[in-house]
Amino acid sequence: MTLKAYALLEFGKPEECLDLLKEIKPVKMTDPVIVKLLVLAMIKLGMNAETTQMLEHAQAKNDQRIDINEQLFFAYVRENKLLK
Predict the structure, then answer these.
(1) 56-74 confidence digits (pLDDT tens)
(2) Which domain holds residue 29?
(3) d(CA 18, CA 9)
(4) Is residue 23 a contact partner of residue 1, using CB atoms and an 8 Å limit?
(5) DSSP H helical segments within 1-84, as ranges?
(6) pLDDT of residue 84
(7) Is 75 left (phi over 0), alpha (psi -120 to 50) or beta?
(8) Residue 84 domain-assigned?
């Protein structure tokens, strides 16, 4: 479903992508591959707060993953929350 959401966004159907993201409930995702794909879609949709929330949850479960830590840092930068 995650790949489908991203594909819908790339094919110019952001409303359908948003509907699918609501079904997926990305905040609970912890798999690094799925998280990366969701991050790409959510950033393009301007869902910065939700992206940060999802990454914080994923980082709590996978705190040794450098890629998730890096994405979380970038999410803080997007939201101007560098003091975290």
Answers:
(1) 999 998 888 899 999 999 9
(2) 2-78
(3) 9
(4) yes
(5) 2-10, 14-24, 32-44, 48-61, 66-78
(6) 56
(7) alpha
(8) no
